Amino acid sequence: MLFVHSIKKIHKVEIVILILVMALILKVGYIQLAGRTVIYQKAKESWQRSFPVQANRGKIYDSQGHILASDLTTSSLVVVPSQIKDKATTALKLSQILQVETNVLKDKLEKKVSIQRISPEGRQLEQKVARQIQRLNLSGVYLIKDTKRYYPGDHYLSHCLGFVGIDNQGLLGLELEYDQYLSGKNGSIDYYMDAKSHNLKMYPSDYTAPQSGMNLTLTIRGDVQDVVERELNNAYDTYHPDGIWALAMNPKNGEILAMSSKPDFDPNDYQQYDKDIYNHNIPIWKTYEPGSTFKIITFSSALNENLFDMDKDTYYDKGYEYVGGARIKSWKKGGHGLQTFREVLQNSSNPGFVEIGRRLGKKRLYQYVKNFGLTEKTGVDLPGESCGLMFDYSAFHELEQATVAFGQGISVTPLQLVSAICACVNGGVLLKPHILKEVRNCYNDDIVYSAKKEVVRRVIKKSTSLKVRDALESVVSDGGGRNAYIEGYRIGGKTGTAQKAVNGSYVGGGYILSFVGIAPIDDPQIVLYIAMDNPKNCVQYGGTTVAPIARKMLVDILPALGVKKTSQQKEKTYNVMDVKRIKVKNFIGLKKSEINESQLRFHYVGKGEHVIDQLPRQGEYVDEGETIVLMLGD
């Protein structure tokens, strides 16, 4: 019995051993056959090392195809620590080229990693530096492709474009707003090493190409932006203001044609500037009392409610109005006397606008301010937009109603104001402003996204808008905006002179001077707004100081937009302080003795009795007292 029992136990052990052997055979077979691919892949992954290949960001263009932002190909430094035989010597040689402390590099070379990127010291190297490193031929030291963002215009449109970080990620401006379009997908170079970091030659390197980002086309017109940048720089150097900014918009579709503010910065080297300069895109960020430019909003609202006939109804400006015990004065001592309401706008009469505010009443005035979008962000596609400040309706009493009517006691951004004025002159609709025109695939140039005109709401009637345009043309021909008048072009506009408010009180002597121009007034294609903060050595009045800057801009901008001159404009009236504009006659063919023009000066060139040429030419306009050059001959 014992023998039989032992046989049975041995038999059971054999069966178990057989099962184990069979299981082992099956497992090995599975590994060799079914699981081979998975295991092989895991082995390759343990041998694999990767060098990243930086993808190019998409380019940014203006609406005329000029490049505003692109990428330059550079090199960056990476090391494989296990391949470096003499880390101290390698660190020393690299530190001399990169101009960093040796210990900083030595610490990075000694890290227990397969690949170490030398950052930021070795990122986006100049070609000269990269060649020096390459000539050293150091083991375990590699240069890989990298990209560096480049802005060919330097300071040009800098606040709108923004900049990118060391890893090519958008940090500010359009680079941040549209980073999802501009960012590409990085590629890589994959190679294989054994545990001792020796190359496994049996496996060739794999190259995964990077995918570039998409290209942006902006609504910015280069020819308009050029003029705006030029004149802002000139004014900044002349008047030394605390700041100056400008914004131009197409009132028909909400496209931003130009935007700039000074002081500005170079996004190629933004680290060298104070963050308060590059962080603040003034036309969309700064809020302040708009002053008399806001009167366009009040005037349009009252016209839309049929509260007066601007050429028949009158208001007598005695120089002040009392509101809630406060005395609101006219800028002109003694007032403007009896005026039509058109003249109230032309003369920028504060007491006259107090009366207009009374006629509108609290409820309607407050509602129009909201309808014109002045209590909410415009939604422009730029980061950092602010929202203006307006009294709560419960705190909007008689005095607040009066001051808001002429642009005091309300705070708005330039973009909010320009958007509202566009609604006043474009037929009455508030549009959402935008700066992106379209997005294109960089490989086949297909349009991925195209911006459309976006109507927010109707604010005033089309018939009202026509009346407003007519009134604003009078401001430039007969009112405070005469210094923006250009012969041959129908221009409307409004000046503004607002005392600066800081922490609820007005700063002595600190003013923001402004002017908004609309052209051509019979078919508006541009609304141009310019403001200057506390300029020095000048008359602190928007019509005197800022309107001439607008004129210089529009002289070049309107031909660029294809606006033709017309003979249908209103004639300019002059006061004793204005410099008259004289239309140059034809002097060619006259004798020198026959030239008699007391309003001009003459400089003669050459010998002879007759005029054979002249500059400026016949029909051009010059300031009274300007010199005409006449060439004499026989």
Polypeptide structure, described:
With 634 residues, the protein is an alpha+beta fold. Helices cover 32% and strands 24% of the residues. Strands 2, 3, 4, 5, 10, 18 and 19 form a seven-stranded mixed sheet that branches. It has a five-stranded antiparallel sheet with strand order 12-11-23-22-21, with helices on both faces. Strand 6 and strand 7 form a beta hairpin. The model has no long low-confidence stretch (mean pLDDT 88).
Relevant terms:
single chain, 634 residues, alpha+beta, Penicillin-binding protein 2a (Domain 2), Beta-lactamase, seven-stranded mixed sheet, five-stranded antiparallel sheet, 19 helices, 32% helix, elongated
The overall pLDDT average reads 88
Number of domains: 4
Instruction: Give me the Rg, rounded.
Output: 36 Å
Number of discrete helical segments: 19
Structural class of the secondary structure composition? alpha+beta
Please describe the topology of this protein.
Elements: H1 2-32, H2 36-47, E1 48-53, E2 60-61, E3 67-79, H3 87-98, H4 102-109, E4 116-117, H5 127-136, E5 141-150, H6 158-161, E6 163-164, E7 170-172, H7 173-177, H8 179-182, E8 187-192, E9 206-208, E10 215-218, H9 222-239, E11 243-249, E12 256-262, H10 275-278, H11 282-285, H12 295-304, E13 314-317, E14 320-323, E15 326-329, E16 337-340, H13 341-346, H14 350-371, H15 398-405, H16 414-425, E17 429-431, E18 436-440, E19 447-450, E20 455-458, H17 462-478, E21 492-502, E22 505-519, E23 526-533, H18 542-545, H19 547-560, E24 581-583, E25 601-605, E26 610-615, E27 621-623, E28 627-633
Parallel strand pairs: 2-10, 25-28
Antiparallel strand pairs: 1-8, 2-3, 3-4, 3-5, 6-7, 8-9, 10-18, 11-12, 11-23, 13-16, 14-15, 17-20, 18-19, 21-22, 22-23, 24-27, 26-28
Helix pairs in contact: 3-4, 3-5, 9-19, 12-14, 12-17, 14-15
